[in-house]
Amino acid sequence: MSDFGGVRLSCTSSAPIYRLVMGGETWQKKQNHATHRHMRHYRHRQAVTGSGEVRGPNSALTEFLKEQGITRRRESSEPPDEVGLEVGDQGQTSQTAIELSDNNTDDSSGSSADEDDPDIVRIRNLARRKRNWDESEDDPDMTSEEEIKGVKNPGQKDTCAVCGVLFVVTAFSRNHKNDALKLLCYDCTMEEVKKEKEAKKRDHNLRKLRKKQAEALLDQKQYIRVPKLQDMCITLITTHIDHVEALGDIGGENKNKISRILSRNRRLDSETMKFFFDTQLKNLEFWDCSNIDSESLRMIGSFCPNLEELVLGMCGRLRKEDLLYLGEKLKSLASLYIDGAFLISGDTWNVFFDMVGGGLKELTIKNSHRISSENIVYMCEKCPKLEKLVLSRLEGCTDPMGYEMAALTLGNLKEIEISYPQDESLVSDDLISGLVSTCGPQLKSINLDGCSALTDKTLGTLRACTALESLSLSHVDQLTDNGVASLFYQWENPGLSEIHMRKCIALGDDSFRVLVDNSGPTLKSISVNSWAEIGVDTVKTVCKSLPGLQDIDLGFCKGINDECVELLAENCPLLQKIEVYGDPGVTENCKVGDGIKLIGRMSDVV
Question: Where is the composition biased (Acidic residues) (predicted)?
Answer without folding.
Answer: 135-145
